Amino acid sequence: MIELIHLQKTIAQATVVDIELLRVEKGQIAAIVGATSQVKTVLGQMLGGRVPPTAGTVRLAGLDPATQWAQLSRRVGLLAPENSLYPRLTARQNLTFYADLYGVSRGRADELLHQVGLMDRANERVEHLSPSMARRLALGRTLLHQPEILLLLEPYAECDAASVAILSRLIQEQSAAILIVASDKSGLHTLKPTCYWLEQGKLRLEETVAAAAAESHLPFKIPARLDGKVALVNPGDILYAATDESKTTLYTKTGPIPTHLNMSEVEQRLARQGFFRAHRTHLVNLQHIKEIVTYTRNSYTIILDDAAATEIPLSKTAARDLRELLDY
Hints:
Elements: E1 2-11, E2 14-24, E3 29-33, H1 37-47, E4 55-60, H2 65-72, E5 76-79, H3 91-102, H4 107-115, H5 131-143, E6 149-153, H6 161-173, E7 177-182, E8 194-199, E9 202-205, H7 206-215, E10 222-226, E11 229-233, E12 238-243, E13 248-252, E14 255-259, H8 263-269, E15 275-279, E16 282-285, E17 289-296, E18 299-304, E19 311-314, H9 316-326
Parallel strand pairs: 3-7, 3-8, 5-6, 6-7
Antiparallel strand pairs: 1-2, 1-4, 8-9, 10-11, 12-13, 12-16, 13-14, 15-16, 17-18, 18-19
Helix pairs in contact: 3-4, 3-5, 4-5
């Protein structure tokens, strides 16, 4: 149902997507993890037919989305990072508008409101909903016409734990071919997708990445350029890694060390070394966590065991995953 074959996209003479082959059949869930914001945007545009690839093909149900989107629009459900909702309309009005657009019964709107847990907010304007509730409504809109292909870009964006659970249940109930594109694996564990990591635009099956790590008898050291030389940083010395999109820095007890690797590449190298993605911008060494502080119902912080008692942001979704991982 979903096929990416010899797919390439070049921007400013740099190849940002280079996927040899990816197929997702009906009833399967696949996830492309580690996508930067640029790659997510480019993949979303190619999957949604907004831009053609530089080379290779995208096929959804055998059709080219770049030239045949009119035939595909009723067969594909696309959830973009933006919710594509009308803020001044109510939750129900948003769904009935799209129901009319797709030619499905307006009763389907109430059915989806119930499924995403928003019947009690049906008459509330979207602009007054929390970001988490708006994301639930956006998935409801995506499922209105019961598409046979689902393309979900960052499906859990800005979601709290309750919303992640609701969205995961709904996604699992679909019989469609499902492709998820996300920056990290937060929230994906319950879906148990076939997971692929993006490395410089190329796909690697997660099991292949894990096998490569298992075969090595040496720890994955992280390279960093310092004063004209390359330093190899031992994972055990790293307290945490942080990124500001343009660069990634490793923080050790002796100070910060810049690395040319992006956050996804650092995370992949440290995948078997006890590191946890606490936030979109932070990767933390579990061995150096001293405390987990809950400031409010939806606000969490990790305190490290270094002299400065460094505070690391912990997203709502990651807080739930960490609780399950450490069983506290």
